[in-house]
Fold this protein.
Amino acid sequence: MRNVTWRAASRVALALTGAGALAAGMALVLVTPASAGTTLGASAAEKGRYFGTAVAAYKLSENAYTTILNREFTMVTPENEMKIDATEPQQGRFSYANSEQIVNHARSHGMQVRGHTLAWHGQQPGWMQAMEGTALRNAMLNHITQVATHFKGQIYSWDVVNEAFADGNSGGRRDSNLQRTGNDWIEAAFRAARAADPGAKLCYNDYNTDNWTWAKTQGVYNMVRDFKARGVPIDCVGFQSHFNNDSPYASNYRTTLSSFAALGVDVQITELDIQGASANTYRSVVEDCLAVARCNGITVWGIRDNDSWRASQTPLLFNSNGSKKAAYDAVLAALNNGTPPPTTAPPTSVPPTTAPPTTAPPTTPPPGQGGCTATVTVNQWTGGFVANVRVTAGSSALNGWTVTTTLPSGATVTNAWSANPSGNTGTTNWTNVSYNGQVGAGQSTEFGFQGTGTAGSLSPTCAAS
Ligand code: 9MR
């Protein structure tokens, strides 16, 4: 019914072309969506979103390919050219010819670029595959710094870390040489990427995280929630959305997107393809993205079926001969019928020309004035314990904090994370580390420590500093 109304309205809008029609057309815009676009990119843009595709550098010389690319898409992801084996084939020797070809093509045609990917267990060059431990951690951080710096200012969002979670029911991390460098490898990667290119959105990207009920989805969700609580610089989550018989689209996909968005990150559909290219399923995916304000856009993993890594499943929007499939029409219609972008119609009145107020803006209370509280959860076993401490800001933001705990005699701290201790026995002052001192009013951050002996209640107290 809604669609019928909109189509009727756009016919009215078309009839109102010519002199004198502008005012009436503007009035219509207020109650109906903008006029229907005729390409994926234009229609997505009308809804405040991008529509992208994976691109292979070697196909940019093919006219049939670039004709569709340039006409339809507003975002590109290099399909393989920014992966670690491509950009650092020998340690310390960087290679950017193919990735730059894609970036330059995109930018010269007004498209943006998703960078894919800075840290991944897959497609590592041989030298990296052979590495472990501190040497690998440092090589990973150097790789991120070098590549993100090289493309600084040219990347809309980076898949900083790709596919770090295990399939199946564990909900935990995938074993890999990167994971074996320490569980904090992902946050270390994000910090390095932020330092190198502060303007790019930093995403965690994975597959089989589309279904809200799957353990892997929940594992990633918990990581992102933890990252947000601790101030790890993450901006977005990429949902690859490779839908097939083993990993089908589920109607709770919208719940997945909105639940992650509610954590305070953007969500992006990063590698969409659907076995058999059901028009209905493609339509649902688009509708789900448009229903979530923080869904920035959709990228399909290739243009024509013969461009797909799963060509035999014919999962894309264009036939191999370049013609549009039914799924294309469904996607375009869903984009055109979707809810308008969060920013509504342009203002109809002239903006006020009065001088800006001369009074000072209201001052927020100085940081720390509202104090803080600390609570602790102890997991005790015979001879040892792990304590997790939650620091919560009071009515004003914290610039730093100190938590004091008291251990009974005989107990000793052996290991700590996300805070610096003054000692390892008795009364201990824990101060924030560089990335978790700033906590918004009413917000929380966490640190923890491990020890031998019996922890007791620890009696934590918190002071703003
Ligand atoms: O589409 C990519 C294909 O050309 C490569 O051979 C393959 C090798 O790993 O990677 C494909 O892209 C993957 C992407 O980088 C990460 N998510 C899964 C994609 C499909 O495997």
User: Anything to note?
Assistant: The pocket of 9MR is lined by residues 79-80, 122-123, 162, 207, 240, 271, 309 (CB under 6 Å). The chain is about 30% helix and 25% strand. The CA atoms of residues 245 and 275 lie 7 Å apart.
